[in-house]
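Exercise 7. Given the components listed, write out the predicted structure of the assembled complex. Treat all entries as one system.
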Amino acid sequence: MTTNVILETSDLKFPSRIEAVAEAAAAVSDFMNHLGISEEVAFGVDMAVREAITNAVVHGNKLDAAKVVELRLRNTPEAFEITVHDQGTGFNPNDVPDPTKEENILKASGRGIFFMRNFMDEVDWSIGPNGGTNVRMVKRL
Amino acid sequence: MAELNISERQVGDVTVLDMDGKITIGEGSVALRTAIRRLLEENKKKILLNLAKVGYIDSSGIGELVSSYTAINNVANGGGQLKLLNLTQKLQDLLTITKLLTVFDVYESEEEALASFK
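Answer.
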């Protein structure tokens, strides 16, 4: 018997507009409430999801109404996994400067990926089979 | 209801903005930016942001706080002061991990905050 059984899954699509951030966060919140995830964990996951959707809508799809952002939620007994897919041209997360370095601390942007990495246990990026960026985030339960 | 409601009051030469809601990408961040720009245009350069009722902020909102701070401190704008009052624990945690807590002048007492303006 495997312990990596998927208990719940949800696949959602959002148009590339700023309102998608709150809509996706609400969907994730409902999913976490349903699973009984603690408030402290939920806060960090919510933060990471909002940043990932923002990046997908603004930087990936560049607010192009013809493009969508896909959100997949899965939980196993051990973890909660979130995947966000956009239709952009991709980027190298290692090129994003550390926002806590002295020379970057007063910059107005560049903290989203930092928050995603801070609040989730695993964050990785890949290019999807048909292009676009996949970001996969895992929170161990 | 708006995502972020901002009420303005004047205490001596300090402008206090009581903020209620979320400072997130879109409406909340824009509301803060608009309020700060208007105060600078009105030559109000001693600004205290009361964040007691800001229940949520994202990286865009934090970026807007930083932009407000740099705009108000900018010598070209006459070199004002922006201070923060009544951070929630979550906002304090976010400012700590981003190392911004050492940048902002933060107070828990409005009286002390007002007295700190030169």
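Discussion: The radius of gyration of chain A is 15 Å. The mean pLDDT of chain A is 91.
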